[in-house]
């Protein structure tokens, strides 16, 4: 499951720099390129050298694309020239100039990344509110005092779960644009968890149905992952969940007393 459980996140600043790659470039990521024939290389050393160069080139290409997302457009020709000049030991910059330039570049990337994150977070908050306002008008939708919106499609039977209960569910989670970030149905495996061990929106929402029940929940960011977000779920995201409550397992009673009569009977049979 993708980060449904409560997590503590360190505040981090996204920085995409040439000295710190954010990803590996596996061979499977090549763009529909036909595999090179071994006949193109005289030996394994040549093939390995080419592979290293191809990996470096792919990384640099993707790095340039990442910078463009932040509004920074680096000159590809100068990037390639820098690599070639370094191999030829003819760099136009001294080691000190290189270090200073890269430090300034990293600072610029961090500033641009922070600005983009703040812009995206605000847009997510605004779009999320508009989505919730529209959903709230649908027939059967209820809004709680915390801002949780939900629609019970099937109530279920028995008792509603309590915070200390373990529940078993199937669910699908999407962003407001319909992009799916998690789905237990496609995994073919329901999820089991203690009700008070998940995001507040789930803890509150599932108490509105019983075993066998189905519910649609639209959860505002303050009841989900807030201003930080998690991988796959951007900051200030409103989340949409369709949940089916398969089972409820009450927590063992900590103060339960032993059955004295049963123990005595068991002792007699020994």
Automatic annotation (TrEMBL):
On the tree of life, the source organism's domain of life is: Bacteria
For whether the record's keyword set contains Nucleus, the answer is: no
Q: Does the keyword Heme apply?
A: no
Q: Which reaction does this chain catalyze?
A: [protein]-peptidylproline (omega=180) = [protein]-peptidylproline (omega=0)
Enzyme Commission designation: 5.2.1.8
Question: Where is the PPIase FKBP-type domain positioned along the sequence?
Answer: 164-249
Q: Report the GO molecular function annotations.
A: peptidyl-prolyl cis-trans isomerase activity
Query: Which keywords has UniProt assigned to this entry?
Result: Isomerase, Rotamase, Signal
According to the record, the signal peptide region is 1-24
Give the enzyme class. Answer: isomerase
* One GO BP annotation of this record: protein folding
Biological function: PPIases accelerate the folding of proteins. It catalyzes the cis-trans isomerization of proline imidic peptide bonds in oligopeptides.
PANTHER family per the UniProt record, alphabetical = 39 KDA FK506-BINDING NUCLEAR PROTEIN (PTHR43811:SF19), FKBP-TYPE PEPTIDYL-PROLYL CIS-TRANS ISOMERASE FKPA (PTHR43811)
Family per similarity comment: Belongs to the FKBP-type PPIase family.
Supply the name of the protein: Peptidyl-prolyl cis-trans isomerase
Species name: Dryocola boscaweniae
